[in-house]
Design brief:
Radius of gyration: 26 Å
Number of strands: 2
Helix content: 40-55%
Order of helices and strands: EEHHHH
Length: 161
């Protein structure tokens, strides 16, 4: 049986920031700031496409194509097959690149999180654009939780009362 030591944090290349000779995504060395900026731009642009795919295209496929009760009169079969095929190809290509980017370096994980968070905020704002109430308003119903004091069963506390 072979036992391998876990690398220390100094040896682990995952916790580096910025371009370096050890930073590789699908075998491509990201060793210059130009390549690093391209990856960052890709992360933000792909976050837009991922949000569009997840929040618009995939629900359309589920609700209009795969739903047995949906009216399919306006759909053209060849176009639907093309859209669904492109969706599947995009989904798996995105997954492969996304995992490679996330696991390459910690800064890529941070960039992806902020890109996805930004797109989620934009999408949520779009869906909630007609709501005019603020979080601080008292229109939210907060459930009443009655206070139940702790009843001690310890003999030394009960004897003191």
């Amino acid at each position: 049986m072979v036992v391998r030591e876990f690398p220390t944090s100094l040896e682990n290349k995952f916790f580096n920031f910025g371009p370096s000779k050890d930073f590789k995504i699908i075998g491509i060395c990201i060793d210059t700031y130009a390549k690093y900026c391209i990856i960052i731009c890709y992360c933000f642009a792909n976050s837009i496409f991922r949000t569009l795919h997840t929040n618009y295209l995939h629900p359309w496929i589920v609700n209009n194509v795969q739903d047995q009760k949906a009216d399919k009169k306006g759909l053209v079969k060849k176009e639907v097959f093309f859209i669904v095929s492109i969706s599947v190809i995009y989904h798996w290509t995105d997954w492969l690149l996304y995992m490679n980017i996330l696991l390459a370096q910690i800064d890529m994980l941070i960039i992806e999180v902020f890109a996805d968070l930004g797109m989620s905020c934009i999408t949520t704002s779009y869906y909630l654009k007609d709501i005019q109430q603020s979080i601080a308003s008292d229109t939210f119903d907060i459930p009443y939780i009655p206070y139940v004091p702790y009843l001690s069963t310890r003999p030394d506390v009960d004897d003191m009362a």
